[in-house]
Amino acid sequence: MAPSISVALLLFAVVVAAPWLVQPSSAAAFSFPPIFPCIPGFPRIPLFPCVEPPPLPAPPTECRSHLMKMMPCAGYLTNSSVTVPPSACCDGFSQVSADLAAICFCHIANGDIQQLLPAPMIFKRMLAITDQCGVNLRMEALVQHCDEFEGVPPMTLPSPPPSAA
Ligand SMILES: *[C@@H]1O[C@H](CO)[C@@H](O)[C@H](O)[C@H]1NC(C)=O
């Protein structure tokens, strides 16, 4: 609603008002200060530079590099003598979410994270880690539902095919 009105106003301004505002000789040098946010998918308008929004992190293409940030959790996840995850573990957990890679937690729920761990993962620890870290996520729910999600990135990208020589 509102964006389309601003688009219409911008178009009106460019088509109708700009020729009056801008002398032809100075057209190349002049431009209005960027005050409007850029509209994704909408062509940039000459003379009306828009403010580019800060880029979002790209969606993950693989999960290994994200889950590696949780390796401080390895002792807690595998060693029954370690009863509390260290803060570096919980920091790593938060970082994966902050990188918008929380979908990668499915590789914890389905056990793929075992590839990164030095010893067998203790299942109860995996279920408890979110509570222990104060992360608002139910690992049980992930365990039950992750196999229904489409688009969970692979743990590792497939290696490129050998180049045909
Ligand atoms: C398990 O943790 C305890 C306490 O931190 C430590 O002493 C022990 O070496 C650990 N065991 C293994 C196999 O890492």
From TrEMBL:
Q: Cite the InterPro entries for this sequence.
A: Bifun_inhib/LTP/seed_sf (IPR036312), Bifunc_inhib/LTP/seed_store (IPR016140), LTSS (IPR043325)
Say if the entry is tagged with keyword Disulfide bond. yes
Pinpoint the Bifunctional inhibitor/plant lipid transfer protein/seed storage helical domain residues.
63-146
- The answer to whether the entry has keyword Glycoprotein is yes
Q: Which CDD domains match?
A: AAI_LTSS
Keyword list (alphabetical) reads: Disulfide bond, Glycoprotein, Signal
**Signal peptide from the UniProt entry:** 1-17
Top-level taxon: Eukaryota
Q: Which family does it belong to?
A: Belongs to the plant LTP family.
PANTHER family, A to Z: BIFUNCTIONAL INHIBITOR/LIPID-TRANSFER PROTEIN/SEED STORAGE 2S ALBUMIN SUPERFAMILY PROTEIN-RELATED
Q: What is this protein called?
A: Bifunctional inhibitor/plant lipid transfer protein/seed storage helical domain-containing protein
Q: Which organism is it from?
A: Sorghum bicolor (Sorghum)
